Amino acid sequence: MTAVAFLWHMHQPYYEDLVTHEHILPWVRLHALKDYYGMVALLEEFPAIRATFNLVPSLLVQLEAFAADRAQDRYLELSLKPADALGEEEIFFILHNFFHAQRQRMIDVYPRYAELLGQRGSATGPADLHAAARRFSVDDLRDLQVWHKLAWLDPFYLAGDPRVRGLLEKARDFSEEDKLVLRTIELEILNAVIPAYRRRMEAGQIEISTSPYYHPILPLLCDTEVYKQTHPHSRMPRQRFTRPEDALEQLVRASTCHERLFGRRPVGLWPSEGSVSDAMVPLVAEAGFEWMATDELILARTLGTTFTRDADGHVDQPQRLYAPYRLVAGDRHVACGFRDHGLSDLIGFTYAGWDAEKAADDFVARLVEAGRRVPARDGQEPTIFVILDGENAWEYFDGGGRPFLRALYSRLSGTQDLRTVTMSEACQQASQTLPGIFPGSWIDANFYIWIGHADDQRAWSQLAEAREALDLAGASDAAARGQAHEEILIAEGSDWFWWYGDDHSSDHDLEFDDLFRRHLRNVYRLLQRPAPDELFVSNITTGAPASTQIDPTGFIRPVLDGEDSSYFEWLDAGDVEIRDVAGAMHQVDRRPQFLTRLRFGFDLERLYVRMDASGPIDELLAEGYSFTVTFLQPAGVRLLVRRVGERTLGSIWIRRTGQDQWVEHTFRGDVAAGTILEIEVPLADLSGAQAAGEVAFVATACNVGGVEIERHPLARPVRVQLPTPDFEARNWTA
């Protein structure tokens, strides 16, 4: 008989900004409505099936917060807001983001949802959304609010819950009461997820394993230089990162989290992205884990061999792959299973396009044949490890993957040649020893995805420097240090680095990049140290959005009165399109976006900056908000505009290279705040700008506590080439 060990990996990165308490993206909540609950609930129909579910703590703690109705993301907020109260920018956000679902299986199967997508169109540029908004009535928007969530509901609810069936049958012209019913169902499912796993675990049907708390790449936390073992000539971060103590903390905290939620400590670990090295093995053992798992290519490299497959996909050395090992590092050891890459990927990437019954037949036949090919050895049965993502694939399957899984579990339950086991059961029979392990991940047995691109390396450098700043903070406020340390642990997660570089991209690259840098800026803010200017600029150099900057066409000489007093004052100025800022995560006080337009220009002696807002700037200043212009060129210069008493004041702050503190200097310019904010900065105050021939800056809005809540532009600073005396002549047009 052949043992089959399934491990379904459930993971989401930590989306919350700890300063604003907003969750940048909705995937924890939406996947919980479908995959997280349904995947384990399905097993109640198949008591003979045993499996392991790997639940990452960064997912679980966010799920807890959403279930308790104390977490918010902008998608949720706007799905609940009365449709007739939606503002223009909110409508644009909904039209742009409420169709993020797999089209064939989750949109086109519902005629009304597909109709709404057709009504919007495929183009989502600003002009396209403006035009689409005119085509959507209040009733259309309300229907979209409902379908955006309804399409994500678990198939159990879609098929059997009378409330959900009623909404599906209604299909259109939903009411605000319908939205409240849907919210009730949503909270019901969210609160059912963790108890469902605990019940199956206590029944002995499943094992629950874990990953490091915030899903970091443990070998890189131990030492980024490990990457050189596969890429000896690669460029590296400007500062080496060596924090094995952080790796151990991520492991220990994961174990503690599971004990709190499930009543027992996990004994198994799926190291993030299957990433392993000799340095992390003793830490895994020290944290109390008895087994871990990674990919077959890691085993091949460790054994100094190559696993090849024939035309039918059968591996040439099954006796070496289909067995657990005892991995030894120093005086520590951990059992280890190695996933069959080919079989796992059939479920993850191939069977979605197949008939469910035929796919199940094919997979079971492959398992049986694989087991038969293993030579008999001392009565030890072959063990096949099937390990893959337990959520994302099902969006591409008919019926959310349930027909396939039911067919698969049914066949496995009745097949005499196969038995399903948990990972602990599979690894108990480890008899072969590995005196070390090749360093790498489940992708190509290396770490290129997370450190190989220049964007990755810049991010690792920023992380290393922030971690060092935490060490140097010494005996500062303990609570602030603790919060700063938490920000570091979050920034160590693998997902930020996954989206950097030219290997992966999504519609949300900018949000991931922004949140990573925000976590690091928060470290410096909590330590009361100035954040490096580099953290105010996107790390993305590949696939970045096209610039929306329009350069100045002539000299400007505005009268600084804080009012749009003349059409011609700013006519020749440059302009920056201001887009909605990364969801609601910046909006700590739940206000709409402040800044709506940013203009800039110059004469031969002065730079001028104008900020327009959704309300009068002087009223915002009176409430305690402030605005800054932070210069990246020349570096270390910041202009702060705030209200002091009855006066609006501008001040220049300078931070010299190698210094930690900003020092206020005499400001020889002027500011005026009324309906708009107008700023005049003498170029003489920007030391080094004229020699460089340009200035580069970002504009920010800060709340009453001085915490940044908006920044524009989001991805790139405004860059202004300083004029020469013949500038106007060269740019003259009739």
Question: What features would you highlight for this structure?
Answer:
immunoglobulin/albumin-binding domain-like, 734 residues, 7-stranded beta/alpha barrel, Immunoglobulin-like, seven-stranded antiparallel beta sheet, globular, six-stranded antiparallel beta sheet, alpha/beta
In words, what does this structure look like?
Helix 1 (27-41) crosses helix 11. The longest helix has 27 residues, at 176-202. Strand 15 (595-602) and strand 16 form a beta hairpin. Among the domains are: 206-434, Alpha-Beta Barrel (7-stranded beta/alpha barrel); 453-536, immunoglobulin/albumin-binding domain-like, CATH 1.20.1430; 549-730, Immunoglobulin-like, CATH 2.60.40. It is α/β, with parallel strands linked by helices and 734 residues long. The chain is built from 28 helices and 25 strands.
Helix percent reads: 25-40%
Q: Mean of residue pLDDT?
A: 91
Largest sheet: 7 strands, antiparallel
Alpha-beta classification: alpha/beta
The third-level CATH topology of the domain at 206-434 is 7-stranded beta/alpha barrel
Quickly give the CATH architecture of the domain at 206-434.
Alpha-Beta Barrel
Which blocks of ≥5 consecutive residues have pLDDT under 50?
581-591
- End-to-end Cα distance: 86 Å
Q: So what's the CATH class of the domain at 206-434?
A: Alpha Beta
Bin the strand percentage: 15-25%
Shape: globular
